[in-house]
Give the backbone structure.
Amino acid sequence: MWGKRDDMVVHDVEPFNAEPPPYALADQPLTGVDTFYSRNHGPIPQLHAPDWRLAVDGLVTNELDLTLDDLQNGFEHISLPATLQCAGNRRTGLLQLRDIPGEAPWRSGAVSTARWTGVRLGDVLRAAGVAEDAQHTAFEAPDVSADSQPAQAYGSSIPLSKALGGEVLLAWEMNCAPLSDVHGAPVRVVVPGYIGARSVKWVQRVAVQCEPSQNYFQTVAYRLLPPEADPDTAGPAEGLQLGAVALNADVLRPADGDTVPAGPTEISGYAFAGDQRRIARVDVSLDGGASWVQADLDEPASDWTWQLWRAVLDLAEGPHQVTVRAWDTTGASQPKSPAALWNPKGYVNNSWARIGLTATSTSRD
Ligand SMILES: Nc1nc2c(c(=O)[nH]1)N[C@H]1C(S)=C(S)[C@@H](COP(=O)(O)O)O[C@H]1N2
Ligand SMILES: [Mo]
């Protein structure tokens, strides 16, 4: 379905929501397009590239109406590996504490990394001439979501300062191939270091404005509410609109519940620090966090991707719990338990990762 591999974990067929199994992400700095998670709030538009237009307006001195040719021929091309992570990644850890009605039970795989090619959003905004008092850049797409109230097309915004940074792209290629429909063809926004929700697919309007977007997916959804809030009645002042990704890490191999031969066993996974932060260290524990060993970190493919890590643990015969936590370059680490993080929409579970393993005798006869 939508060009995805057969072993995807499909949460919804319509709108299509699917994540790869953890082993499919393991050891791959870049995720194949067939493996990359996909998160959709409405029917997937199938747009005809020659008819596509991008309006750039709002607080600009020179409104633009760009074709794909204009975009590809008018601005410098940039190719940048970047990780996207849904704010709902690892929601299953929160669901174990309390139900979260209406939200998909994302496991560890609502995160993937691709090489994106396009132009800098900042270059397009500079061509339009941004007014001095502008603060935000809003994005609009054509896909109307039945999840929104009132039903509306998908949209969101990011601060103008972020939009002008060289990493934010209007992209038409993913891993050196034209974007597929499910990933936003012909052109999507890619906002490295921010929650996936801000990387608007099928983008058709960029508006420069004083306030954040009034779209449902900016003002109501993707808001981190206090645990006692009712998401249906929460006022606009409650909670915070999510932007930069919070430090996170998880195990990709082996899988939770696996049986492995006793002896040296490699554990591997990802760690991701959002926005301006980087991964400084990843620790792995066999005793619930009383003592730790440091994992080896791979070089990231760019300043805007996850880092893969691996550690070899000597497992005695019997059951084990493996615990993982990452540190970022500000010295922050992850919270120990999801209990402290539960929130009504189930976002940002970045608690320590845990998997159970059973090590068995390796004798063969
Ligand atoms: N137009 C539009 N853009 C969208 C969405 C959407 O439903 N419609 N989903 C957002 C969310 S919540 C995420 S996590 C990412 C997922 O991107 P992907 O499907 O390419 O992995 O797209 C974002 N952009
Ligand atoms: Mo998302």
